[in-house]
Amino acid sequence: AAGVIQSPRHLIKEKRETATLKCYPIPRHDTVYWYQQGPGQDPQFLISFYEKMQSDKGSIPDRFSAQQFSDYHSELNMSSLELGDSALYFCASSSPGLAYEQYFGPGTRLTVT
Amino acid sequence: ELKVEQNPLFLSMQEGKNYTIYCNYSTTSDRLYWYRQDPGKSLESLFVLLSNGAVKQEGRLMASLDTKARLSTLHITAAVHDLSATYFCAVDIGTSYDKVIFGPGTSLSVIP
């Protein structure tokens, strides 16, 4: 069965650089979520999209922005990177037909040096 | 502000024993999730609990939800080493099931 795809899987950037993370949800899933997980921490909700519209926001820094495109893939854009942005970034998708159970992608490990 | 708490945060148990992980949350929600995460890996959905009194079981794990008490439990029966992982509960507070807040996680270690 198709799963959530994230790219890249690993990313190394320097401080003040920008990064773009991509997420391809499971086909026919209409909601996409982004999470940030620091070392030893629980996943922190960043933002969600429903049918290509921003649905809800969490603790997403102003330096970050996200969007969902017509093909339902989503991108998380991160600017002016800081050392504290180093984390695992997960994308998840869900569908009302599956009780909004979230299926997580493998994650992108971002390291800021 | 929503708070999701888990107890205990760390659990070391012997194989064959039973134990319960507790998840408390501070605001109304009728949707709670349990996830498993192995070190450095993604999150695996274990259970989706949708209503008061919901009980679900899969193998050695059983989850329940009491929305009035704002409490969910994850019960482990006859633990085996393969259950060693971090377990998160998460509460959905979005108006359209679009905002999920995680608890701090319970790190479970099952020892022979």
Description:
The complex is a heterodimer of chains A (113) and B (112). Chain A has strands at 5-7, 10-13, 19-24, 31-37, 44-50, 53-57, 64-68, 74-78, 87-94, 103-104, 108-112. With 113 residues, chain A is an all-beta fold. In chain A, β4 (31-37) and β5 (44-50) form a beta hairpin. The model of chain A has no long low-confidence stretch (mean pLDDT 93). The chains are: A mainly beta (113), B mainly beta (112).
Task: Note the main attributes of this structure.
heterodimer; A: 113 residues; mainly beta; seven-stranded mixed sheet; four-stranded antiparallel sheet; globular; B: 112 residues; six-stranded mixed sheet; five-stranded antiparallel sheet; 11 strands
Structure in a nutshell:
The complex is a heterodimer of chains A (113) and B (112). Chain A is built from no helices and eleven strands. Chain A has strands at residues 5-7, 10-13, 19-24, 31-37, 44-50, 53-57, 64-68, 74-78, 87-94, 103-104, 108-112.
Topology:
The complex is a heterodimer of chains A (113) and B (112).
Chain A: E1 5-7, E2 10-13, E3 19-24, E4 31-37, E5 44-50, E6 53-57, E7 64-68, E8 74-78, E9 87-94, E10 103-104, E11 108-112
Parallel strand pairs in A: 2-11
Antiparallel strand pairs in A: 1-3, 3-8, 4-5, 4-9, 5-6, 7-8, 9-10, 9-11
Chain B: E1 4-7, E2 10-14, E3 19-25, E4 32-37, E5 43-49, E6 55-58, E7 61-66, E8 71-76, E9 85-92, E10 100-102, E11 106-111
Parallel strand pairs in B: 2-11
Antiparallel strand pairs in B: 1-3, 3-8, 4-5, 4-9, 6-7, 7-8, 9-10, 9-11
